[in-house]
Amino acid sequence: MQDNQGHDETGQQPQALSGIKVLDLSRVLAGPSSTQILADLGADVIKVERPVVGDETRHWNPPSFTDADTGDEIAAYFATVNRNKKSITVDITKPEGQDIIKKLAAESDVVVENFKVGGLKKYGLDYESLKAINPRLVYASLTGFGQYGPDAKKPGYDYIIQGLSGLMSITGPSDGEPHKVGVAVVDLFAGLQMTVGIQAALIAREKSGEGQYLDVALLDSAVAMLANIGMNQLATGKTPPRLGNAHPNITPYQVFETKEGSHFILACGNDRQFGKVCDVLELPLNTDDRYNTNPNRVANRESLTAALTDAFKQKTREEWLTQLQDAGVPCGPIHNVTEALAMPQVIARDMIVSFEGSPVRALGSPIKLSATPVRYHRAPPKLGEDTKQVLTQMGLTDEEVQQLQDNQVV
């Protein structure tokens, strides 16, 4: 609700997605990461969870945030992607539960789900069924392999998709086994792609008056993430090798060890910067025909890397970082997570946030809007804490809500 000056119920200017209602039937990471972005931007997100059990990630602990007064615990994993949402519990396998979802969908702008292909059709909660109720609905489905194709029926998991997509084949040491990325990057990237698609569909609806179906797949997202590495294969027909911390198209663009055994990143992106590296090292490698241009350096990567490796072991990491930064060469230390979260720049950018009355501290949103900024108005909800309120707002009486609870529908 807004007053005649355009302010919302908190007395603040409305956010970018204020007034957009999202019915979130997704769970675990990829889908909830998308709906959290929408919630951060002001959408009213209702998270639908199974009675008693809830989202699986509520139980993916330790670690947890613990309320000092009540002893209640919130799994850190669940808290990662579920702030700014309401939580209701509904058993969608029961007709009464399906009716609740249909009534909520009739009033929603967006439905998000990550069930297996066809998994909601048997409950009458698939796109065609809900479209008949609400033609303006944007219905977003996120699966492992998409809604069609020979693998469409298979379940999808981030780790497995990292392997299938080729991403693991280019991650890890060149002389070791393939590695996954340290976080579920495919889930998170697919969530971002879904967010973009949802907002595009909402803009299209303003022109057409009609909603549409959005099909996002983990495998598609992972293949898109191959970016220039995938393009290298398409351009040459050759399988890109695993290069560890080196770059396939630029060198020296990698990690080097220093005198005391610590490491730093050198990101030398052009010939001019390479000349500056050589000046700092007092080595005229840039005058050598093998190394004077980037294509030549890539072709002679091994001998160049060997020369630089020996040179960088002559001083400490801090000495090299100071000299290289003074020379205008991109470089930086390799932080652990504790060091990264303590960086003054991270703190200044509000990338660590808290919630009044909650023990949860969370990673902030990277989206910085000048007129309609992200707000952190609600901690990750307790399971079903908004069920009664949402059902009452739908028009149900206290007695009807109680009956649904007695029948274990909610």
Automatic annotation (TrEMBL):
Pfam families: CoA_transf_3. PANTHER family: SUCCINATE--HYDROXYMETHYLGLUTARATE COA-TRANSFERASE. Gene3D superfamilies: Crotonobetainyl-coa:carnitine coa-transferase, domain 1, formyl-coa transferase, domain 3. The gene is frc_1. This is Formyl-coenzyme A transferase. GO terms for molecular function: formyl-CoA transferase activity. Keywords: Transferase. Its EC number is 2.8.3.16.
